[in-house]
């Protein structure tokens, strides 16, 4: 091989190596969806960790919650919150997204997948309710009963931070308490309804927070999902609000997905 061919071959190898490096370091896109009573604020430390690693992170706040509390009204429901996330995808032109849902958002992210499946890379359920087509977050009759004592007949006050697995003496307990807002009961009473198969066919990970409120009871979610096709089962030894109590560990898990 003459010198010219050697140079050409070397340039080709360098180009391929550079392409491989770029492929390996290409930023991922994460959309982190909060649960009931929370807002995008709750992902502060996890989002910072993911961004520090070079990735793109969106932490939308659902209508009527967090800094969007002024938009709360009786018409806000599950469909409203699904539209919030769908519109984020549309206006930010997102694709190849790792979509993460905490708690109540376990009903939101599969409905987003039902509408935008081709633009989602992976679904992550963080200690979340498991979606079931035709069923709501609350069992039949529960929402109606709660409405009798709800503020204005439809707003549910947030529980104490300890309910979320955050110890009362945790450094972030007061911060969380200040930011929790009332949650609309209609969002918990509207059944999930798929038109395009929901999240079927997408890879899914469930992250179970082991310090559960009902530790004395068998884990029905584990029995339902662990070992099933399309599902990966992971655990974190922390309380329900893992993004607050174990942000570094959760960030590492998300980076590996």
List the helices and strands and how they pair.
Layout: H1 3-25, E1 29-33, H2 44-52, E2 56-58, H3 78-92, E3 97-102, H4 108-116, E4 120-126, H5 142-147, E5 155-156, H6 173-179, E6 183-184, H7 185-189, E7 204-209, H8 220-225, E8 231-236, H9 242-245, H10 247-256
Parallel strand pairs: 1-2, 1-3, 3-4, 4-7, 7-8
Antiparallel strand pairs: 5-6
Helix pairs in contact: 2-10, 3-4
Describe this structure in words.
37% of the residues lie in helices and 14% in strands. By secondary structure, it is of the alpha/beta class. It has a single domain (29-256), classed as Alpha/Beta hydrolase fold, catalytic domain (Rossmann fold). The termini are far apart. Mean pLDDT is 91; it is low at 1-23.
Radius of gyration: 21 Å
What class would the helix/strand composition place it in? Answer: alpha/beta
Q: CATH superfamily, called what?
A: Alpha/Beta hydrolase fold, catalytic domain
Fill in the CATH topology.
Rossmann fold
Helix content bin? 25-40%
Helix count, DSSP H or I runs of 4 or more residues: 10
The CATH class designation is Alpha Beta
Largest sheet: 6 strands, parallel
Low-confidence stretches: 1-23
End-to-end C-alpha gap: 44 Å
Characterize the overall form: globular
Number of strands: 8
Which percent range describes the beta-strand content?
5-15%
Strand order of the largest sheet: 2-1-3-4-7-8
Task: Identify the CATH architecture.
Answer: 3-Layer(aba) Sandwich
How many structural domains does the protein architecture include? 1
Strand/helix succession? HEHEHEHEHEHEHEHEHH
Mean pLDDT level: 91
């Amino acid at each position: 091989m003459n010198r010219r061919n050697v140079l050409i071959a070397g340039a080709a190898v360098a180009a391929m190596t550079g392409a491989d490096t770029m492929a390996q370091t290409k930023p991922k896109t994460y959309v982190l969806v909060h649960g009931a009573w929370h807002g995008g604020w709750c992902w502060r430390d996890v989002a910072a960790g993911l961004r520090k690693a070079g990735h793109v992170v969106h932490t939308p706040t659902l209508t009527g919650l967090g800094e969007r509390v002024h938009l709360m009204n009786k018409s806000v429901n599950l469909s409203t919150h699904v539209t919030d996330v769908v519109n984020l995808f549309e206006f930010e032109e997102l694709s190849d997204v790792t979509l993460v849902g905490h708690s109540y958002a376990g009903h939101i992210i599969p409905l987003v997948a039902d509408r935008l499946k081709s633009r989602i890379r992976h679904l992550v359920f963080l200690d979340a309710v498991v979606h079931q087509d035709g069923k709501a977050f609350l069992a039949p009759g529960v929402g109606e009963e709660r409405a009798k004592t709800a503020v204005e007949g439809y707003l549910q006050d947030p529980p104490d931070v300890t309910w979320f697995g955050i110890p009362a003496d945790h450094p972030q307990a007061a911060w969380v308490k200040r930011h929790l807002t009332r949650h609309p009961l209609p969002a918990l009473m509207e059944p999930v309804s798929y038109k395009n198969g929901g999240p079927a066919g997408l890879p899914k990970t469930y992250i179970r927070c082991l310090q559960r409120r009902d530790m004395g009871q068998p884990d029905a979610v584990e029995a339902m999902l662990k070992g099933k096709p399309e599902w990966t089962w992971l655990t974190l030894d922390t309380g329900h609000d893992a993004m607050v109590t174990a942000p570094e560990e959760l960030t590492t898990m998300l980076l590996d997905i």
